[in-house]
Amino acid sequence: MSIISALFKRYQMIFIAGILLFPAFSLLAKPINTVQETVQSRTDKTIRWEQDQAAMAQTEQDVRNLLHKPLTINAAVQVALLNNRSLQATFEEIGLSAAELRNAGTIPNPSFNLSIRFPDRAPSGTDLEYGAAIDFLRLLMLPLRKRVAKEQLEATTLRVADETLELVAQVKSAFYSVQASQQLLGRLNLISEANSVTLELVQRQHEAGNITDLALAQQLTAYSRSRIEVAQTETEIRQQREKLNRLLGLWGNETNWELTGSLPDVPGSDLSVNGLERLAISQRLDLQAQYLGITSLVRALGLTKSFRFIGALNFGVDSERGSDSRTITGPTFVLELPIFNQGQAAINRSEVALRQQQRKFEALAIDVRSRVRELRDQLSSQRELARFYRDELLPNQRRILSQTLLNYNAMQVSPLELFTAKTEEMQVEREYIGAVRDYWITRAELERAVGGSLQPLATGAGKKIAAPQSSRTPARSVSNP
């Protein structure tokens, strides 16, 4: 018996030491790797959780290297994933959840009590009582509590990855807006310069008496309007750049970045939109996080029901040395009697929370489906609209302007007609640039709605997320039949 007792004490100390000395980074490694792999597979970009000065210094260097060249959309997304401070704050939620998991798996500390009593008459010996106890109920619940905390950590990891993909979509939308405005500004500057040259020519013709005061006023109005449009577009660009600066986490001299190129043209062929709803249900990380939250609540509810009649359960040992120097030692046992509180409120609260989470899950699945259908139809319409502007309306309007200019030079049309043709051509070009911009922004939003990638992932793309059972609705799949 002494050998068995010695072995038990030995391995018990090893087990306790393993729990107490379990490094925090081992709990954080898997979740942050999951986020990195998820973002990498869906965006082909990397993230970095800055947990020390070395990581911060590396991020600063990488951001400087990216900003040293004109920004592309891929570079802008990478800068945001490395440098956005709100995203770094979101990463810390993984650390908080990991700390909860570590706490849930830690053996509770024993309690120690000491009582010293002095008699008021002989014999004058001091009465000493001391004991130690441990919360045995918490020990029994330890595996279940740890499992619940682990599921909550997994749900937190999915939410963090989902917010990372949300940032990617926001950066793409802001980038396309700046790119479109800069492309429009370049065109407006050319028109303003042409109007300035035309105005000088008209003024000389007016001085020579070849054109009327009305024609001069019309040309002056055209020049002034073009300058106003340039100023308005420059203001829009400054506002859009600041929005992008906030998303990229830039300030000071870092905000002097330059954008490369103009908007890419819309693709010549339609994007395959078949099965996007099914893809969204299988890839959306917020849906998976909601489902894990429901699983955790179900397990927590079972835990509450299992121990509803046991409010407190403590085991320990107590020893007392009386005034006659005799020591009495024995076990102690504390049990809370479930006379008044039998855990009804805790069970009811858990059931309500579970139903609430189920309804949120179902509502999110419906919203995801609806949003995907909306963006899918919107993307197809905007693609056709942009191609119509590019292939038909804009070339026709440019031909009208060219013919009007020839007729004006031949003095067959008035300056008002030329001014009208220029205005209409500029309006059509503005609408074309806006249509191309809206196409790419909608595509970025559709990527976000589907889960970060419009193509099925290599693993898990066809996985179904089953809606949990409730008291009113049977379990069912939220994927397409």
Give a quick summary of the entry:
The chain has 481 residues and is α+β, with helices and mostly antiparallel strands. It has helices spanning 2-20, 24-43, 53-67, 73-83, 85-104, 136-207, 213-248, 276-283, 285-306, 344-409, 415-450, and strands spanning 111-117, 127-135, 313-321, 327-335, 466-467, 476-477. The strands form two sheets. Strands 1-2-3-4 form a four-stranded antiparallel sheet. Strands 5-6 form a two-stranded antiparallel sheet.
List keywords for this structure.
481 residues, alpha+beta, Outer membrane efflux proteins (OEP), four-stranded antiparallel beta sheet, two-stranded antiparallel sheet
Helix content: 55-70%
Unreliable residue runs: 1-25, 459-481
Distance between the termini: 63 Å
- List the helices and strands in order: HHHHHEEHHHHEEHHEE
What would the principal axes of the Cα set say about the shape? elongated
Give the integer mean of the pLDDT values: 83
Q: Count of helices?
A: 11
| Number of E-type strands | 6
Q: Which CATH class of the domain at 265-308 and 344-481 is shown?
A: Mainly Alpha
CATH topology of the domain at 265-308 and 344-481: Outer membrane efflux proteins (OEP)
CATH homologous superfamily title of the domain at 265-308 and 344-481: Outer membrane efflux proteins (OEP)
Rounded radius of gyration (Å):
36 Å
